[in-house]
Write a structure and sequence with these properties.
By secondary structure, the chain is mainly α. It is about 70% helix and about 0% strand. It has a domain of about 240 residues: Na+/H+ antiporter like fold (Up-down Bundle), CATH 1.20.1530. The chain is built from 17 helices and four strands.
């Protein structure tokens, strides 16, 4: 990109994919390390489920997944697979909600100009795969129920792949991927609440307001005792689940009540960051891998079974949505933002970098499998084809992204070496000091 001075009277536009502040960069690195570990566990859990479901002992896998436990009251006699999808994923969405609120209240994205890029890209990255899926399934009876399946990006899976291929991505792109996935999660849970709620019980939903309100009062007073907050959160989750709204919505709603800033107004981690720090290891290390174990198991049935799945427009729509729709939607939305505003791509990047990251965003897993279960029912033939489509689509997206990003690896490494220079020895990279002086 050129460093030309803008014409007189014209303000320079914002830079896309800038590196952000030093504090934000440090925090992003910490989050990415946690997500990388969780993503590797997720991949391992999914691999175990696939091997088990296609082994001579496959019936024991399905017996375990469909084993029901819990009280009959409040519709809580659920299978282990449903407990993982409705209960454990609520923890995942609680962390996503905390992350999203922190980013927009106290993070770099509190600046509307910075926030515009991941929001616009997330919308484009969800709308385009949905359109691709619908085009594949026009005229197919009942298949359109799965239109939202290829819209989700699995941040843990994507970051784990990023770590495996050892790419020295510029920090701006890493932050973009993380924020894009968080916004993506919010849009996905909104879709689940609006379009996949079959039966709504307003009495339970009204009662859920009470524990949610009590939780909000306590956290606004900066009360952080787990002995108080966890039982109240469980009651809220139970009532939301009984209302017919998917129970993971409770996790996001509770997260949005948590204050981000400190009560004394000083700099430093607030309650949202404190709860996120406590909960993220449980989400990444326990909740998501267990869900992946129960959701990813599908008996392919050899070449005949794979051929059957790949002739189903449901699986084909998912694969094309993830592999084609995601990169076209994300990169296309970013290009439109740069074309019709004064925004410009950061000097150290090229559009091939954006395309590579957009391909990596085609890794859909956790939320995609969840929506597939909600759309077609756990254990149905269509749901099995959903799993094949999600797995093959995600694998294809990973391979394509790896080719593109690895081809840029040498350039990324040179950029990273420049960014890490600290000639004055004060512990803060010189490039960030230069940015602060320029600002």
């Amino acid at each position: 990109m050129s460093d030309a001075v803008p014409p007189p009277g014209r303000r320079p536009g914002p830079r896309l994919f800038t590196r952000g502040t030093w504090l934000e960069r440090s925090r992003t690195a910490e989050v990415l390390r946690a997500e990388t570990t969780g993503g590797l566990l997720l991949i391992a859990a999914a691999a175990v489920a696939l091997v088990w479901a296609n082994s001579p002992w496959s019936e024991t896998y399905y017996d375990l997944r469909d084993y029901a436990v819990g009280p009959e009251a409040l519709h809580l006699h659920l299978t282990l697979g449903t407990w993982a999808a409705d209960g454990l994923l609520a923890i995942f969405f609680f962390v996503a909600g905390l992350e999203l609120k922190r980013e927009f209240v106290a993070g770099d994205l509190r600046d509307p100009r910075r926030a515009a890029l991941p929001v616009v890209a997330a919308v484009g990255g969800m709308a385009t795969p949905a359109v691709v899926y619908v085009l594949w399934n026009l005229g197919a009876d009942g298949s359109l129920d799965g239109w939202a399946i290829p819209t989700a990006t699995d941040i843990a899976f994507a970051v784990a792949i990023l770590a495996v291929i050892s790419t020295h991505l510029p920090v701006g792109l890493r932050t973009f991927l993380l924020t894009l996935a968080v916004v993506d999660d919010l849009l996905a849970i909104t879709i689940i609440a609006l379009f996949y709620t079959e039966e709504l019980h307003l009495d339970y939903l009204g009662l859920a307001v009470l524990p949610i309100g009590l939780f909000a009062v306590l956290v606004q007073r900066r009360i952080r005792s787990g002995w108080l907050l966890v039982p109240i959160a469980l009651v809220a989750w139970t009532l939301v689940h009984s209302s017919g709204v998917h129970a993971t919505v409770a996790g996001v709603v509770l997260a949005f009540t948590v204050p981000v800033r400190r009560i004394d107004g000083r700099d430093g981690p607030g309650l949202a960051e404190h709860l996120e720090h406590l909960t993220r290891p449980i989400s990444a290390g326990v909740a998501v891998p267990i869900f992946a174990f129960f959701a990813a198991g599908v008996t392919v049935g050899g070449l005949d079974g794979l051929r059957s799945a790949l002739t189903d427009p449901i699986a084909l729509g998912i694969i094309c949505g993830l592999v084609v729709g995601k990169p076209v939607g994300i990169a296309g939305a970013t290009w439109l933002l740069a074309t019709f505003t004064r925004a410009e791509l950061d000097d150290e990047l090229s559009w091939i970098d954006v395309i590579g990251m957009s391909m990596l965003a085609g890794v859909g897993f956790t939320v995609s499998l969840l929506i597939g279960e909600l759309a077609f029912g756990t254990g149905s033939a269509a749901d099995d084809h959903v799993k094949v489509g999600v797995l093959l689509g995600s694998l294809t997206a990973v391979l394509l992204a790896t080719v593109v990003l690895r081809s840029r690896n040498r350039t990324y490494r040179r950029v990273a070496e420049i960014e890490e220079r600290d000639d004055d020895g004060d512990g803060v990279p010189d490039v960030h000091q230069h940015d602060d002086e320029t600002d």
